[in-house]
Specification:
- The model has no long low-confidence stretch (mean pLDDT 95).
- The chain has one domain: Four Helix Bundle (Hemerythrin (Met), subunit A) (Up-down Bundle), CATH 1.20.120.
- Helix 1 (2-28) packs antiparallel against helix 2, helix 2 packs antiparallel against helix 3 (78-104) and helix 2 (35-73) packs parallel to helix 4.
- It is mainly α.
- 87% of the residues lie in helices and 0% in strands.
Length: 154
């Protein structure tokens, strides 16, 4: 079960990032024809981000302790001490922005340039911070693999 959660967590994160890029492109080309699609995808960003948060939090609380000890004892302890700590705090910015996106996307983007710019800014910040969080997760995973390989070869 932990492997399913560990796989689903970044999948939903990536779906949130892709959806945020989609919102950005829709807002860039805002028209009455794509207004509902923009709002729907803005909600998708929020939902995917919440699911990634819940899955990641559940996995962290229930399964991460062993990996944390392994990483801290391995050759790359910064994979936890810096990357995980950064990821834990950076993610909240992504979560808040993802929850803000559906609110900002309610405006008439086709006729309101300021609202359109706001939606594009929030969407791109969600995408960029999401990529940073995904990258941090990959480095944490790498730290665990290197620690395990070092432990097995000793």
């Amino acid at each position: 079960m932990s492997d399913i959660i560990l796989l689903a967590h970044p999948i939903f994160g990536v779906l949130g990032i892709i959806s945020a890029v989609w919102v950005f492109v829709e807002a860039l080309n805002a028209s009455p024809a794509n207004a509902q699609r923009t709002r729907t995808m803005a909600y998708a960003v929020a939902v995917f981000t919440i699911i990634a948060w819940v899955l990641g939090g559940y996995w962290y609380v229930n399964y991460y302790a062993g990996d944390k000890a392994l990483i801290l004892a391995g050759p790359l302890p910064w994979a936890h001490s810096f990357m995980m700590e950064t990821k834990e705090h950076l993610f909240f910015m992504t979560l808040v922005l993802a929850l803000l996106l559906p609110i900002t996307a309610r405006a008439n983007l086709a006729s309101n340039r300021s609202a359109r710019v706001m939606v594009m800014a929030v969407a791109i910040l969600v995408a960029l911070s999401g990529l940073a969080v995904e990258g941090a997760g990959a480095l944490i995973n790498f730290g665990a693999k290197v620690a395990l390989a070092t432990q097995l070869s000793a």
